[in-house]
User: Fold these one by one.
Assistant:
Number 1:
Amino acid sequence: MNTENMENIYQNIANVLNDMLPEEWSRILLYAEIREGYAHIFFYYYPINSKKPIYSLKIEEKFNLDIQRYSELENQLYDYCEELWHEFGVQQQEEWTSLTFILDNNGKMKVHYQYNDLSEIDPTSKRKQWEEKYLP
């Protein structure tokens, strides 16, 4: 399996996440669910010296951001996650249904893939299950 393209996509995802955050951070946890014709992504990040994560949808409310620029970055994030999903097919690997991408500010990265059918579970329930598993 050729992983070079996948590694580049992971790096692009990390770069976009970093650009989206308006303050220094210690850890980012991203959830992406992709299937043909559907994409849902959210993330949490921990500001430096904070034990309380900030939900991605709260960033615009909490900080005075350039909304157009933030939307462009958000679109890039969706594009890269979809590109990663498609790359699994190109590499003749089973396409995942969701992933959790964990990035520490020292550059350490972990990716957890899930392959179960999530189409019958509502987005709020999925997010709560994910939060219980990944947020302390």
Note: The chain has one domain: 4-134.
Number 2:
Amino acid sequence: MIEDEQALVDAEAAFNRAMVTNDPAKIRRCISADWVLVTTERGPVSGTAVLDAIASGTLIHDSMTKQSIVVRALGDTGFVTGRGQNTGWFRGVPISADEWITDIYRRVDGRWLCELTHLTPASASDETA
């Protein structure tokens, strides 16, 4: 794995760890100011809306893992795609997800920051890449 790709893997791991802290300040260090989350339920959701939901306790993550990772660095842009599982709470109701996740990163001042996260539900029959 080339150095930039390893840096993306490390950035992705840091992003996942930050999400399960449920600490918006820690998450903010992993994402750009314009980060967007794309979901099947709502389409594009602003990073501000996601962080506000976390700060208020409306959205809580208990676990977040990713496997079968595909990583590409293309200059100052890169992406990480993998099959992810997470658990937590939304509005007091337990949630869990099994998804294909693509995070698009941009290198800013030598650091990889996530610009966009796109979620696609996985099915039990999906083969891993």
Note: The beta strands are 31-39, 43-46, 59-74, 77-90, 93-108, 111-121.
Number 3:
Amino acid sequence: MIILVTIFVVSIVFYLYFKVRILNYKNPLYMEYTNGKARIALGLFISTFGINAYGFYQTQFALFICIIFLALGIAQLTHGYKVFKHYREEIIKLQDAGELD
């Protein structure tokens, strides 16, 4: 159970870090790239929160909430990974072409 709490706390810290980090960028490409990383952290946060809630209460209602949180968390995680992967490749292409600093 301590592992879930650790992942829970670390993922929310990373989510907040990436969301604040977006404010430092002027280039929308870097902003979307960082937002993809933030979505991955948010998905992990939501998923571990749902699992932890079920582990604490262990009722049928908590299981229902856990399933909903897992579905939302996995959706955020996969969408964030797709965004992260897409913009990473775009940044690499532009850096190789010398158009991006």
Note: The first helix runs from residue 2 to 22.
